[in-house]
Amino acid sequence: MDTSQAPELTSEQKRWAFFGSTLFLTAVGFLGYALGEGAMILFAAGWVALQIFGFVGSLRLAKGDFAQPLFKSQVFLHVIVLMMLMALVFRSGG
Fold first, then answer.
1. Dihedral sign from CA coordinates of 51, 13, 65, 72
2. pLDDT, tens digit only, all 94 positions of the chain
3. Is the dihedral of CA 62, 66, 71, 74 positive or negative?
4. Beta-carbon count within 10 A of 58 CB
5. C-alpha torsion 36→50→25→65, nearest 10
6. Distance of alpha carbon 11 from alpha carbon 13, whole angstroms
7. Where are the alpha helices (DSSP H) in 1-94?
8. CA distance 17 to 25
9. Distance (Å, rounded) from C-alpha 77 to C-alpha 2?
10. Is the separation of the CB atoms in 19 and 46 below 8 Å?
11. Rg (Cα) of the chain, in Å, rounded?
């Protein structure tokens, strides 16, 4: 793939791409933890699948613009899922 013609990303696009990738890596890490512990495997696998389809679909519709509102809404959606996961963990005393 020739990336010599790719435009340079703005700082806002880099920031949103970082947020999205951080959330994806968090989901993959939680999937590894869930597989190791044998708990919440379906949630963890579903969260990774939801991120893959959501981020790819929103980037396709946004024509690769990470700062587009559709991609930002995907990031916020997964922040909400992360907060729900943290609430479950804290409520269970784990």
1. positive
2. 566 777 788 999 999 999 999 999 999 999 999 999 998 999 999 999 999 999 999 999 998 889 999 999 999 999 999 999 999 889 987 5
3. positive
4. 21
5. 170
6. 5
7. 11-37, 41-61, 69-92
8. 12
9. 33
10. no
11. 15
